[in-house]
Structures are given as C-alpha cells and as structure tokens.
Design goal:
The chain is an alpha/beta fold. It contains 24 helices and 16 strands. Helix 11 packs antiparallel against helix 12 (about 340-375). The two termini are about 25 Å apart. The relative contact order is 0.15.
C-alpha cells in the first residue's frame, strides 16, 4: 500500500495495522477488523447520481470541509451547526491544475453510459445504437468533452467489431457436421418451439413505436455547456427558496441540509422570544443536536416550493397550512355524519397527513430563517451592489468599505470577481491596493487564493489606459442576450430573470438562443472563449467557440462531423420529431422531446430553477434534463479553486 493510499484511509478513520509478519489488517476507530489483509485500493466509478427527477450529477466534489473550519459567516447561517459543505473540484482540476483531459474523459464516459441506456427508446435511434442524434457544445471545455465522447464511440465500435470477428472464428472452430449432430424429429420440433418463445421478446423490441417499450423517454438532443462561458451567474445571490437555502445554510452533497433541532422543533421560550435572540439561544444550548433534512423530489411540498421567489414562498407555505388545516377540520367536524367507508379512508390517510404536516412545519421554520437572512440590511446592500456591477458600474469604494468592516472573505471575493468579470478586469492601481488590504485583513494565504482566481479567469488586472466607459465583453453579452429584465414580476413570472429579480442567467439565455439556431446573437458568439486545437467546419461551429453536429452510424470523429453543413435549429427538429411520433401513434407523443443539458464545471440552483421554469413553458419545445459535474454556488466554487 502506498503512502497516499494509507493517508486517504487515515482521513476515513481506517488505520492500517501491520503485525510482525508484515501482514496489514485494517482497523476503524481503533477496533481491529475481522477481515484479512488490506493490499490494495480500487476505484469505484459511481458516475451520474440522480439528485432529482430532472437533475443528475457526477458530484465531482474535491472533498468536504466543516463549516467550523471555514471563516465565520461565509454562508451567513444562523443555526450554528458545524456541518460539512461540499467543495467543487472540476474547475480547479481543469483551469488551475491543468488536468482538463481527465475531467473531459470522466464526463464523456458518463455520456456514453447515458447513450447505452438510450438504445431502443427513441424514434429513429435504433440505427444510431442509442447515440444522441443532435449534439451541440458551447465553450472550449464542452468541445473537449464532445471530442472525447465521439472518440470513445469509435473505440467502442471497433471493440464490438473485433468481438464479433472473434466469436465468428470460435463458432467455426466448434462447428459440427449436420450428420454428426443429427437429432430426432421430436427433438428438432421441441427445440424450434423453444427458440421461437425466446425470440419473441427481442422481436417486440425491434418494433419501436408500436409497443409499450415506447413509453420510455429518449434523449433527442444534447447541449454541453462549459462553465467558463458564464462565470457571472455563480457569483450572484439567488432569490429562489432552494437557492437561498444553499446560500444561507448550505445544501450538502446528495441534496440534504443540516440544521439544529431547535430550529425545526423550537420550545415555548424560543417561540416567545424575539428573532434576534434565537441565534444566541442555539449557541448556548449544549444539548441541541444537528438534524439532517432531505431536500429532493421525495417531498412533494418541497417540489412545489423550491423554485418560488423569496417574495412569495412565505405566502405559498401559509396557504398550504390553511389548506391542510381546513382538510383536517372538515372531517373532524362533529356535526357532519360519517359512514364507515369515509372513516376507513380517513384512517388510511393519517400517515400521509402526518408526513405532510411534518414537512410543512420543517419548511415553515426553514423559510423563516431564510427570509430573515434575506431581509437583513447587509443582504439588501449586497444585492444592490451586485445589481450595480451587473450594469457595469465600478463599486471599488463599496469593496473597500466591506473589507474594512470585516466582510467574510469568500463573500467579499465573490463581489471582487463579479466586479472584474463585468468590467473587463480591475484597474492595476485598484487591484494592488485591494490585494494589500486582503493580506492585512484575511492573511497571507489569500495571496495564493487571488493567484488561483487569476489562473481560472475570475480575476484580471488591466492597464490604466482602459477607460471604465469603454465597451467590454460582458456589456456586449448583456445587450445581445438581454440579460437584464428589470420589469419581471416575481409573483407572476414570464421570464427566467425572476430567479434574481431582474437578471437572467447567461447560460440559460444561451439555451434559449440554441433553439433559434443562435440567430441574432452573432455578436455575442464572438465573445465566447476559444477552444484550442479544434478546427472549424463549414457549418459545425464558430471559431472553436461552439459546435453543432449530428451523430451518425458508424461513428466518426469530431473533425469529420464538423465538415458537414449544419442541420435545422433545435426548435425545428423538436417539431419534426413530435410530428413523427404523432404520425406513428407513439405512446406519449403529446410529451415534448427531451433535451439533455450537461454543465461541465458545475451548475447553480438558480440556473436549475430557471431551466425548470423554461421547461414548463408551453412555448419551449423541449423537456429539459440537467446533468452536471457538481452543484455549486459562488462560495463553494471559489473555495474549490483555492484548495
């Protein structure tokens, strides 16, 4: 066993105990195990983990860090729990450590598995052996992933062809003469009947569109998005219920949150005390254990409330409480006669009622905590600063005031990165001054943090001759993609910009542009980062910034696929596929085709909420399934880059 493996086991609490004969037996927490020698470690490729019905994640986290070890206040929570916070890793591996090929290979292999599961499900996918017909990618990392995926397809096809050749040669070697292997007529008849029975299931699979096998959804299109095309969105404060829980409390890997028991089960003294007294009471209580709450689609109430705006999720939960109370009071009304059937039905619903009541109580307490944080003066000031930066206004004085007042380091770094991203960098004189204040306030270790953020593209020092009034890459993208929509109504949203009260996530705007074939955003396309080493075909992409290809059979390389002209837009293809399903009486043809969105580098809960909103719109032609390397927010993303 290597020292690295032994160190890793030590972090897990497993100690390699060597006896006098040199045979290692592992123990955990000081207790000798009953198993034999521990000689090696093997990799377990878990691949995509379903976090929700429409969200899958590789969870490529670079480990977890305890909140107690982080700088106080980085999440702004008030429950005082020392819980584990996921640390994103994908961007550090690719941008800071230069291991882009490793991450691209992991993502490409997960896409290969999805395409294997896609076999035999979709209309016309039989000839492609499950390959997703239409593939698009935005950003250099997306290009690398698609290139690797298509290479793996070619390698897989070669291996299958070789296996078929080997099997054919083996059959020839084992060939028996018909005379030597002659059976009786009864045996031949019985054998033929047996073969026919075994063949019937595969026969049904070959007739897709006519049987119940069509009930399974297929993946009709794939859009891979590089996180580098939108570094602005993770730096912003979300205003949806799920996003605020992650921002305030921190949603852990797997979709759960840790809170103090007193938060969801307050005693009478806490209920009567003012809200500002709750935090101190929680810290003073030594008998206040941490409770882990699950936050996923297994909770119907959470599914309904998670994407609500901060202004309305409180009212929504109150209405749910009134409806639950009325439902219970209607049955318990003594003036209404009940027969045995109704009583039996009520008794059967008691466990469901109890579960719903428990869920509602938990979410009301969590919503009170989240809303209290959102109504704080510091929160509103931070949101106003973010909005000013999104309008490309310089806010250096605000940054200086915040660092002087002791703003948590990664909260402050999010604003610094946002200022740099929206202003095409920070003036050299300002940057040197701010860096000096960072060292004096947070310590010398943050010099390395700033250096890593520069490598990853979050920070940039620019020369003083560049005027603040000059057009920047971000200002071009803001106008071309209509990122700011100040007229959006959070209570009745008609645009994805509701997730932050006026800012539409740039990545989601690119998804909308892909439906139109990127028509009208030609100027914005020029601002995308360029992929190195990938050429441009006649219609496959633009300057290595984005690609748009069709997968075919037999598999081919990305360079060959990009030589063909581009096909119709995704919206046009969605209409064609829907009409084809309707014409063949495809089971579930009324459903929209499925678009798989794969975020390489992480996705935020704010973006997931916007994508769900988009998917539910009747005017949007696809149902969206979101895949990602990990779930991130501004804090976890910056922390991962500074490990």
């Amino acid at each position: 066993m290597t020292e690295a493996e032994r160190s890793f086991l030590g972090e897990l609490g497993v100690v390699d105990d060597f006896d006098g004969m040199g045979t290692g037996r592992f123990t955990r927490d000081g207790v000798r195990g009953s198993t034999g020698a521990l000689t090696s470690l093997e990799s377990l490729p878990i691949d995509l983990i379903p976090l929700d019905d429409d969200v899958l994640s590789l969870e490529l986290a670079g480990g977890t860090v305890l909140r107690a070890t982080c700088h106080e206040g980085d999440r702004g929570g008030e429950n005082g729990a020392a819980f584990a916070v996921p640390s994103a890793a994908c961007m550090r591996h690719s941008e800071v450590e230069g291991c882009e090929a490793d991450v691209a290979d992991v993502v490409a292999r997960s896409l290969m598995k999805l395409q294997i599961l896609n076999r035999g499900r979709g209309l016309g996918h039989e000839k492609l052996k499950g390959a997703i017909p239409r593939v698009q990618g935005i950003g250099p990392f997306a290009t690398a992933v698609i290139d690797r995926m298509m290479t793996l397809r070619m390698e897989e096809e070669r291996m299958e062809a070789q296996a078929e050749e080997d099997e054919a040669e083996e059959d020839e070697d084992n060939y028996e003469s018909p005379i030597d292997g002659l059976h009786s007529m009864d045996e031949v008849v019985n054998e033929g009947e047996d073969v026919e029975i075994r063949a019937s299931p595969s026969h049904n699979q070959d007739n897709l569109g006519d049987g119940q096998s069509d009930n399974l959804s297929s993946i009709d299109a794939l859009l891979v998005i590089d996180r580098k095309i939108d570094l602005v969105t993770p730096m912003l404060t979300p205003l949806t219920y799920e996003g605020l829980i992650d921002d305030v409390l921190g949603i852990q890997v797997g979709g759960c949150v840790s809170v103090r028991r007193s938060l969801i089960e307050p005693d009478d003294d806490q209920l009567q005390s003012p809200p500002h007294m709750h935090r101190s009471m929680h810290h003073d209580s030594a008998k206040d254990p941490t409770v882990v709450l699950s936050l996923n689609d297994s909770d119907p109430l959470y599914t309904e409330v998670r994407d609500k705006h901060v202004e309305i999720f409180g009212t929504f939960l109150q209405n749910q409480a009134k409806a639950l109370k009325e439902s219970h009071s209607q049955f318990t009304n003594r003036e209404t006669a009940r027969d045995l059937t109704e009583i039996h039905q009520f008794v059967k619903q008691i466990p469901v009622f109890t579960r719903n009541l428990r869920s509602l109580t938990n979410h009301i307490h969590i919503a009170e905590l989240v809303k209290r944080a959102a109504e704080a003066t510091t929160f509103r000031q931070r949101w106003q600063t973010e909005r000013s930066m999104l309008e490309s206004e310089p806010c250096y004085e605000v940054l200086e005031d915040l660092i002087a007042s002791g703003e948590p380091p990664y909260r402050w770094l999010r604003l610094l990165c946002l200022q740099s991203l929206t202003s095409n960098g920070i003036k050299a004189t300002r940057y040197d001054s701010l860096r000096k204040e960072v060292v004096q306030t947070y310590g010398y270790e943050f010099l390395l943090v700033l250096n890593d953020l520069e490598k990853a593209g979050f920070l940039r020092k620019r020369e003083t001759f560049f005027m603040d009034s000059m057009a920047t890459s971000y200002s071009t993208l803001r106008k071309a993609l209509n990122l700011i929509n100040a007229e959006v109504d959070p209570s009745n949203p008609q645009d994805v910009a509701y997730v932050s009260s006026g800012y539409a996530p740039m990545s989601v705007r690119w998804v909308q542009a892909s439906m139109r074939g990127y028509s009208g955003v030609e100027e914005a396309m020029k601002e995308l980062p360029v992929a190195g080493g990938v050429g441009v075909g006649s219609g496959g992409g633009g300057g290595g910034r984005w690609i748009d290809i069709e997968q075919r059979f037999p598999p081919e390389s990305l360079a060959d696929a990009m030589k063909r002209p581009r096909a119709q837009s995704l919206a046009t293809l969605a209409k064609i596929w829907s009409d084809s399903r309707r014409g063949r009486n495809y089971v579930g043809f009324e459903q929209k085709p499925v678009l798989l969105l794969y975020f390489v580098g992480g996705v935020t809960f704010m973006e997931i909420a916007a994508l769900r909103f988009l998917s539910k719109r009747p005017s949007f032609p696809y149902n969206i399934v979101c895949c990602t390397t990990e779930i991130v927010n501004g804090t976890t993303l910056l922390q991962s880059l500074s490990c």
